[in-house]
């Protein structure tokens, strides 16, 4: 999950990943 978080930080376009991370919490 941390890897996905880093990818989201470096790639603002991947909002989908952030969305899933928010739901995962």
Shape: flat
Number of helical segments?
A: 2
Radius of gyration: 8 Å
Order of helices and strands: HH
Structural class: mainly alpha
Overall pLDDT metric:
64
Q: How many DSSP E strands?
A: 0
Helix content: over 70%
**Major pleated sheet:** none
Residue share in β-strands? under 5%
Provide the low-confidence segments as ranges.
Answer: none
Distance between the termini: 11 Å
Task: Please describe what this structure looks like.
The protein is mainly α and 25 residues long. It has 2 helices and no strands. The protein has helices spanning 2-10, 15-24. Helix 1 packs antiparallel against helix 2 (15-24). The longest helix has 10 residues, at 15-24.
Which key features would you list for this structure?
25 residues, mainly alpha, 2 helices, 76% helix, flat
Topology:
Layout: H1 2-10, H2 15-24
Quick recap:
This protein is mainly alpha-helical and 25 residues long. It has helices at 2-10, 15-24.
């Amino acid at each position: 999950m941390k890897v996905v978080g880093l990818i989201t930080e470096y790639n603002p376009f991947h909002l989908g990943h952030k969305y899933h991370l928010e739901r995962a919490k």
